[in-house]
Structures are given as C-alpha cells and as structure tokens.
Amino acid sequence: MVLSGFFGSIGLFKENISLKMKKKAKEIIEFLEIAHLKDRKMNEMSSGEARRFLIGRALVHDPKALILDEPTNSLDLHALYKFSNILRKIAKSGTSIILVTHNISDIIPEIRRVILMKDGKFCNDGPKESILTDRNISNLFGAPVEIKRKGGYYYALRK
C-alpha cells in the first residue's frame, strides 16, 4: 500500500519499483510504527491500522502538508490514541497538518492555528488559544459549552 503511493494507484500491478522506493517505503512503515502489519491485507486491518498505511502512501512524496478530513471517525479509544500520537510525530518531523474536524479533542498540541467555519463561511481565525474559547465554540455549535485544556489538548464539556 505504501509503495502504491509512488504510482498514484491503490495496490501494485506491473510497476517498476526501485530500491530507492523500497527503502523509502520501509522507512515510512517504521516511522508510522506499522512494520508488524506490513504483510497483512488492507481488508484484514482495523480502521486505525489502515489509516496509517494510507497516510504512508502520502508521505512517500515528502509533502509539506497533509490535509486530513475527519480522520478519527470510527476509531475506538485505543486506535484514537495511537493515531493521535502518529499525527504528533508527523507534525514534529516538519510536515504541517491541516485537520478538518468537528471534535476539538482531535486537535493535537502541535497545531497552532485554528479556523472555525459555520454555514460555509469563516467565522474565527487565529492562534488556537484565542479561538478555542467557551464563547467561540458555543456560538459555533449553538450550544453552551465549557472549554477545558489538559496536556495541550482541548475538550468541550456541556454547561
């Protein structure tokens, strides 16, 4: 799956795979902590395991940024924890993370800027600390919430 990122395909067919490509794929697999899964088929993996391989496909090109749309949907708590740690590792390696989410707890500590959208329009944009406030999030979702911060993560609680 990771090697297929070099060819823009899902899976490999008759592509010529160079030693350089194999080496890069191996490095990514180790970086994403999925070496123990490399011989499994995608349909035999959990959602979280498969997601890490799909991210590996994108990383073969050393992107400056990854755009992730609701990447934590359907993940259980264990998979969410592992996925979050991998996103943090990617961000710390120098790849920017652009994250689209409805859950503020998905926002990893390494994300510094937050843009809020409502009805298809930007309504707030700025440093995470000034945007993720009780008032802004309550207005965004139309429900009274209290924002808590712990360990660099933000959480919304009902008031």
Describe this structure in words.
With 159 residues, this protein is an alpha+beta fold. The chain has 5 helices and 6 strands. It has helices at residues 19-31, 47-59, 77-92, 128-131, 134-141, and strands spanning 65-69, 96-100, 113-118, 121-127, 145-150, 153-158. Strands 1-2 form a two-stranded parallel sheet. Strands 3-4 form a two-stranded antiparallel ribbon. Strand 1, helix 3 (77-92) and strand 2 form a beta-alpha-beta unit. The protein starts with 18 loop residues before the first helix and ends with a strand. The mean pLDDT is 93.
Give a nutshell description of this structure.
The protein has 159 residues and is of the alpha+beta class. The chain is built from five helices and six strands.
